[in-house]
User: Fold these one by one.
Assistant:
Number 1:
Amino acid sequence: MTAGNGVRLLALAVLVLFLMQPELFSPFFALFTKPGQPAIYNQGGLLDITFNHLGIVLAATIAATIAAAGLAIVVTRPFGAEFLPLCRSLANIGQTFPPVAVLALAVPALNSFGTAPTLLALFLYGLLPIFENTLTGLTNLPAAVTDAAKGMGMTGWQRLMKVELPLALPVILAGIRLSTVISLSTATIGSTVAARTLGEVIIAGLLTGNTAFVLQGGLIVAVLAVLIYDGLSALERMLMVRTGQAGRAEG
């Protein structure tokens, strides 16, 4: 085991222990509290809030992946090429709008507080990296490989499913990785519209002047982001080796 993997495993173990037995860490977080303040967030279970946070991020990332990858596939086909500028503009809109503004617009549009507007904001915010990476992956395939697939008599659908997508998968996964990490941190603002995310721990700390709460919410999000980023990066490297692209630049 490398030193890096050892550090990641240790970070995961500490995170799991903290989420399951937060009181064990009271002496440490008490250093950041004022007299009379609780050292550990006490308005809900940190484990439940973390699972809910991850569930919202996972749902938004899956939806963004289906939509963005689907659009990228369409615009790389002959019949959809003319829609590339439109699709790129749509994907860019999600990134140009601040998530807070999207939330502010989504609440009255959906007539709902909580998870729904947060999912919409994360979905829009996660489109661009996946769309651009899928586009890059599908338009930079080795010409010799695609020519060979055509020479074998494969149909367009067969080339897409058996050649193009498998070869582009590491680049697509890099976009999903970026989108996931962005969503993981952005989801915290969902608590401003009553979504149950780790943002509620941070907001509770800000409202009560309890720095320990702010640290707890921030550290959980940060450790999750690093672990998920590294995990997906390792998966990309494995896919590149399996598809014989280990020499290509990493996404």
Note: The chain has a mean pLDDT of 91.
Number 2:
Amino acid sequence: MTQGALPDVVVIGAGIVGAACAHELAAHGLSVQVVDRAGIGTGTTAAGMGHLVVMDDTPAEFALSAWSRQLWLALAPRLLAKHAFVRCGTVWAAADEEEMAAARVRQHALQVQGIACSMLDAAQLHEAEPALREGLAGGMIVPDDAVVYAPSAAAWLLAQPVAGRIEMRADAQAVAIERHGVRLADGTTVAAGAVLVANGLDATALLAGLPLVPKKGHLLITDRYPGLVRHQILELGYIKSAHQSSGTSVAFNVQPRPTGQLLIGSSRQFDTTDPAVEPAVLARMLRRASQFMPGLPALNALRAWTGFRPATQDGLPLIGPALPGSSSHRSTWLAVGHEGLGVTTALGTARLIAAQMLGQAAPIDAAPYLPARLGSLDNESAPHG
């Protein structure tokens, strides 16, 4: 892009998904301008855990998360210490024989599809994570899962030298998508050949009727306890909690950070957009966690916060052209609705967006994620994620 020329694409949102998309488009030689109302990685990206995990509730969820995790693993050698990438693996803890049976089914399914994973009996689980309570039935380990500090990774992606050009504009809130570009809160318009909406739940203010719902979550971080937890640990019941479509649910999820701190989750709530930490929900979440880690109540908690996962009706993100008539700009694209897998699937999402915008083939089928599927969804079906 020459000085003063219009960008090929304006990306709304500088979270990990928007940053990854901007990077990928610019890597293909496009000029990209990124606008965000706050700054890089300051929204949902900053509020999340930054896990990079393979999930397989549906074939489409597996295809995108497995491929995107592989892209992260390939990118990892280029990342710096400040990005806090750690290939810590995920241990799925089974409380009883019923959950062990479910773990065996899942382990077999993942292994058949080429994902490294193995079962742990009770003794092996205790050896892997001595801080877990006695009496758990066992579990499953996925050694190639990882964690990353997503806000820092987003900034890195936007700063990388690429064939095209990326211009970042912070404090630039998009308030409308118009025929020729994006109107900002200061009254100016960023004209561009295409508009990519990647600002999570805020996208609903730009595209009327976009079916995204918020799932509120709580997280807590502790003081430094190096070596206390070695892997990201989740209870098998986490999947059930993640798929709950109403009410409030909690599940045990603890993640070791490179600093030695522990990040503890998780909760899911519907029908609220109040960002306040709710002591009752936080207490319930920590009680659940202490059922798996009896020593947890003795740890020193530093801070708790909340965030909102943008969820779709069928649990899959919206990646592709916006529905006809939903936007004034004829070339409007979506990369939203990733729920709790935004960091995991950011790089794969970016590849899918670039492939579609440039008319190229992608390694996985883009059809399950196209916004066009919204027209055929059963309005009564429950969201999950």
Note: Residues 377-385 have pLDDT under 50 and may be disordered.
Number 3:
Amino acid sequence: MDLAIEVIKVVVVLFGVLNLAGLLTWVERKQSAVMQDRIGANRASILGIRAFGLFHPLADAAKLILKEDFIPEGGNKVLHTLAPFASLFFALLAFAAIPFGNVLILDGKEINLQIANLNVGILYIFAMMSMGVYGVVLAGWSSNNKYSLLGGLRASSQMISYEITMGVSIMGIIMVYNSLDLQEIVRRQGELLWGFIPKWGVITQPLACLLFMTAIIAETKRIPFDLPEGESEIIGYFTEYSGMKFGMFFMTDFVETVLAAALMTTLFFGGWQIPYVHGNSLTIVILQVLAFTLKVIFFCWFFMLIRWTLPRFRYDQLMKLGWKMMLPLSLANIFVTGLVILLWN
């Protein structure tokens, strides 16, 4: 019975993440079209029905499946094949520690709405995100192409640089809620400050919220941090990829966007919490899962908004922002948070 429950939770999370990531491929085109006063994707149809272009992701999938798989001459076949699997696998694995609801009680049995209830959930997620670097580096190196290698090096240096800031920025959250367990952090955000303000991370750690959001967008390698994939410069770690292997890298970008939205929701916007609503009844638990989903969708939309608004940084600007501005601010945030906690107590 316990195994069946765990399998159901894994299926539900994977179904939700993969479908939302697939839908984002359509949202990105449609949202950019709206922002640029264009019609956007609307050509794909089934039996004459276009449905606002919603069939485009299906057409994309069919195209990628039917395309020839190409490995460049002199490239490492094993690593070239392994790289996209590594990127997607570790991105999906990170969702295991994210709570998407509170405890559901069915027939007296408590079901924690989280695949893996780890007491070091934050460290686990960071470890999985760090492992994703290997897929990027392997793709660049195994392609036997200097442009791909340069793209892989850019991606790895960018991801490592901003992971440090990301890790330091959430130290304030850990200090305020006194836990590395994401479910516990979400529960603590259900408390009220001065009896009426929800104790969400964005309230208690506004600077950390801004720094973490900037770093997590850089981690997804999307505009304005898309230097590893700069199409206009004909450079990128997946330049020599085609077919479904390219599709897996493409999908990884959107899965990472969903992961970034889920982390923003969990750490700074109350996770599944609905202000002033408490309890474990079935109705409340469903509403909490729905609230978590809507928050994640909102941040996916917000990241798309940023992606189609800001221009790309130069590489020196990228490194200056990460090392000379964001990292010192993250360290200062830890000092200020510690001082406030000391005085508060």
Note: Strands lie at 103-106, 109-112, 192-193, 197-198.
